[in-house]
């Protein structure tokens, strides 16, 4: 079963609780995009918001850190109630140490790669993570177009998982909508993050069903 993770980046921040409630049925994670204005050219959410939305839903909070020096903030996001914390390989010269730090906080660790970063960069860490997030756009903003060349990386991660019996989930993020979801699922994606394709639609339940219908046949 493919999982859906609505990204609240495209939600109305003046009423986040209501927005989360509007997508809660039939989805699996709530995806939270944390940006620092350094690693990516945008500033969004910090631990205070994660703490504020934690009691709103029972769904796991899938926290995607697009920040420099993530090791300085992992404890705060863990304390705020994150269930999964993913860090960018490009932001972590000591990636193994940060992944261990996340695990030691009792949170599931994930690793993220940008469109231009090859899978080989993260091969040594694949046995230690619960999630591998393949960026299918350049991180920083919602509503961008899907980059097709990322599909082969999803396939590679799917192959490696089978070959070595790894148990990470393969997640994709960026430009995921009814037109692109099937290619991701066919390549081996197991969790689909979708921001604008869900929150920019008035009927969120219909939007979620449209994405699911695109690959469930
Ligand atoms: C992009 C973020 C995504 C973003 C996706 O930097 O990591 O999670 O919210 O937005 P859409 O689905 O609109 O491309
Ligand atoms: Zn994201």
Automatic annotation (TrEMBL):
<dbReference type="GO" id="GO:0006098">
    <property type="term" value="P:pentose-phosphate shunt"/>
</dbReference>
<dbReference type="InterPro" id="IPR011060">
    <property type="entry name" value="RibuloseP-bd_barrel"/>
</dbReference>
<dbReference type="InterPro" id="IPR026019">
    <property type="entry name" value="Ribul_P_3_epim"/>
</dbReference>
<dbReference type="GO" id="GO:0004750">
    <property type="term" value="F:D-ribulose-phosphate 3-epimerase activity"/>
</dbReference>
<feature type="binding site">
    <location>
        <position position="7"/>
    </location>
    <ligand>
        <name>substrate</name>
    </ligand>
</feature>
<feature type="binding site">
    <location>
        <begin position="195"/>
        <end position="196"/>
    </location>
    <ligand>
        <name>substrate</name>
    </ligand>
</feature>
<feature type="binding site">
    <location>
        <begin position="173"/>
        <end position="175"/>
    </location>
    <ligand>
        <name>substrate</name>
    </ligand>
</feature>
<keyword id="KW-0170">Cobalt</keyword>
<keyword id="KW-0479">Metal-binding</keyword>
<dbReference type="Pfam" id="PF00834">
    <property type="entry name" value="Ribul_P_3_epim"/>
</dbReference>
<comment type="pathway">
    <text>Carbohydrate degradation.</text>
</comment>
<dbReference type="InterPro" id="IPR000056">
    <property type="entry name" value="Ribul_P_3_epim-like"/>
</dbReference>
<feature type="binding site">
    <location>
        <position position="33"/>
    </location>
    <ligand>
        <name>a divalent metal cation</name>
    </ligand>
</feature>
<feature type="active site" description="Proton acceptor">
    <location>
        <position position="33"/>
    </location>
</feature>
<dbReference type="GO" id="GO:0005737">
    <property type="term" value="C:cytoplasm"/>
</dbReference>
<feature type="binding site">
    <location>
        <position position="64"/>
    </location>
    <ligand>
        <name>a divalent metal cation</name>
    </ligand>
</feature>
<keyword id="KW-0862">Zinc</keyword>
<feature type="binding site">
    <location>
        <position position="175"/>
    </location>
    <ligand>
        <name>substrate</name>
    </ligand>
</feature>
<keyword id="KW-0119">Carbohydrate metabolism</keyword>
<comment type="function">
    <text>Catalyzes the reversible epimerization of D-ribulose 5-phosphate to D-xylulose 5-phosphate.</text>
</comment>
<feature type="binding site">
    <location>
        <position position="31"/>
    </location>
    <ligand>
        <name>a divalent metal cation</name>
    </ligand>
</feature>
<feature type="binding site">
    <location>
        <begin position="140"/>
        <end position="143"/>
    </location>
    <ligand>
        <name>substrate</name>
    </ligand>
</feature>
<feature type="active site" description="Proton donor">
    <location>
        <position position="173"/>
    </location>
</feature>
<feature type="binding site">
    <location>
        <position position="64"/>
    </location>
    <ligand>
        <name>substrate</name>
    </ligand>
</feature>
<keyword id="KW-0413">Isomerase</keyword>
<dbReference type="GO" id="GO:0046872">
    <property type="term" value="F:metal ion binding"/>
</dbReference>
<keyword id="KW-0464">Manganese</keyword>
<dbReference type="InterPro" id="IPR013785">
    <property type="entry name" value="Aldolase_TIM"/>
</dbReference>
<comment type="similarity">
    <text>Belongs to the ribulose-phosphate 3-epimerase family.</text>
</comment>
<feature type="binding site">
    <location>
        <position position="173"/>
    </location>
    <ligand>
        <name>a divalent metal cation</name>
    </ligand>
</feature>
<protein>
    <recommendedName>
        <fullName>Ribulose-phosphate 3-epimerase</fullName>
        <ecNumber>5.1.3.1</ecNumber>
    </recommendedName>
</protein>
<dbReference type="GO" id="GO:0019323">
    <property type="term" value="P:pentose catabolic process"/>
</dbReference>
């Amino acid at each position: 079963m493919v999982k859906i993770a609505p990204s609240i980046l495209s939600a109305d921040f003046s009423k986040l609780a209501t927005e989360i409630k509007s997508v809660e049925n039939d989805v699996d994670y709530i995806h939270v995009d944390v940006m620092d204005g350094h690693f990516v050219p945008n500033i969004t959410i910090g631990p205070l918001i994660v703490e504020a939305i934690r009691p709103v839903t029972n769904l796991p909070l899938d926290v995607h850190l697009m920040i420099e020096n993530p090791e300085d903030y992992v404890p705060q996001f863990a304390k705020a109630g994150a269930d999964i914390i993913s860090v960018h390989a490009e932001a972590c010269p000591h990636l193994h140490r940060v992944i261990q730090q996340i695990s030691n906080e009792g949170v599931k660790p994930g690793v993220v790669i940008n469109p231009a970063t090859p899978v080989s960069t993260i091969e040594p860490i694949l046995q230690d993570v619960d999630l591998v997030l393949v960026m299918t756009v350049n991180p920083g903003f919602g509503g961008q177009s899907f980059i097709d060349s990322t599909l082969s990386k999803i396939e590679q991660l799917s192959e490696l998982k089978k070959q070595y019996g790894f148990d990470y989930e393969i997640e994709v993020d960026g430009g995921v909508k009814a037109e692109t979801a099937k290619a991701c699922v066919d390549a081996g994606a197991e969790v689909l993050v979708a921001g604008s394709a869900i929150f920019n639609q008035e009927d969120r339940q219909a939007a979620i069903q449209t994405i699911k219908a695109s690959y469930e046949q």
